[in-house]
Structures are given as C-alpha cells and as structure tokens.
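Quick one from the shared queue. A colleague (R.T.) flagged PTS sugar transporter subunit IIA as missing a structural entry in our internal table.

Convert sequence to structure tokens.
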Amino acid sequence: LLMRENETSTILGEGIVMPHVQDESITSLKMFVLKLHQPIIWDDQESTDVVLGLLGPDPEKDYEHVPYMSTIARLLLRKDFIVTLKSASTKEKIFKLFKNS
C-alpha cells in the first residue's frame, strides 16, 4: 500500500484519501473506512481525517475494484454524502451510508 501511494497520490480533497492496492496475496476485494479522531497530514500536503481504502486481487487478473472506485468518487462529489460520512458515529452507520448510496 505504501509503495502504491508513493507512485501516485490518492488525495481526493475534503480531508478524504482513497489509497488502493492490488496484490496476488489478496483473494477478494476488500474496503475499509478509517475515521481518524485527529487529522493527519497525508502525503506531506493534505489534512486528512477519513481514509477509504480498497484492497484488490492481482491486477493482471482482476479489475473488480475499478467500478467501486468510480462509484466512491461520484459519491464524494456530493457534499451531503461527505457531511453524512464525516458525521457518522458508528461502523453500522457508515456501512448503511455506502450500502444505500
């Protein structure tokens, strides 16, 4: 993940980053959401308090992550989505937000 981040920044703005990586050791697409109690400086430039991560299988065999990244990027164009994501206080609320969006 760190090597991938060094290739291209994954800063999306609004305090949100979306690091993603594919590796042969990963057997299926996984997503994680980290809401930080205190913002951190990501990639020496952006104050970040939400990390949306995607882990996917070998890039030579699977592009399953691409539609998910596109969907997430579209959601993050909506101010109401960002506000709701940042104010969500439980993992259940975050899961429901993504599921219903």
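The mean pLDDT is 85.
The chain has one domain: 2-100.
Added to the table.
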